[in-house]
Amino acid sequence: MYLFPGIGLGALLSGARHISDGMLHAAAECLASYITDDAIRKGILFPSISSIRHITARVGAAVARAAVDEDLAEGCPDLDPRDLRSMSESDTVDYVARKMWYPVYSP
């Protein structure tokens, strides 16, 4: 099974101990919103790699919010689940984006 980046990130940042069907459904719905009918006709199943970081933040946020909605979120060291619950959708996306790892390579 191919898992799009963001599922594990959302679970980690929410503090969920397992990934539920609802969390996977939230990730799938979010990811599917980035695929056009034209892309599907062409056999394209996933968005372009050039947009992976943007979409990963959104998928991670959808997964984290689903964990909160299902009372699976236990929080992480810098964020209590109540704080996560009170965040807007855009604040959740921003939070996930800030927590993403950015590779830095030596010249």
Tally of contiguous helical segments: 6
Question: Shape from CA axes?
Answer: globular
User: Which value, in Å, is the CA radius of gyration?
Assistant: 14 Å
Q: Considering DSSP H and I runs of 4 or more, what fraction of the residues is helical?
A: 55-70%
Question: Multimeric state of these chains?
Answer: single chain
Q: Can you summarize the main beta sheet?
A: none
**Which strand-content bin applies to the residues?**
under 5%
Order of helices and strands: HHHHHH
- Strand-pairing-aware structural class: mainly alpha
Query: How confident overall, as mean pLDDT?
Result: 91
Low-confidence stretches: none
Say how many strands there are.
0
Count of discrete domains: 1
Question: Cα distance, first to last residue?
Answer: 36 Å
Word description of this protein:
With 107 residues, this protein is mostly helical. It has one domain. It is 56% helix and 0% strand. It contains six helices and no strands. The radius of gyration is 14 Å and the shape is globular. It holds the Pfam family Malic_M. Residues 1-68 form the Malic enzyme NAD-binding domain. This is Malic enzyme NAD-binding domain-containing protein. One of its GO terms (molecular function) is malate dehydrogenase (decarboxylating) (NAD+) activity.
Brief description of this entry?
The protein is mostly helical. The chain has helices at residues 7-14, 21-32, 37-41, 52-69, 81-86, 89-99.
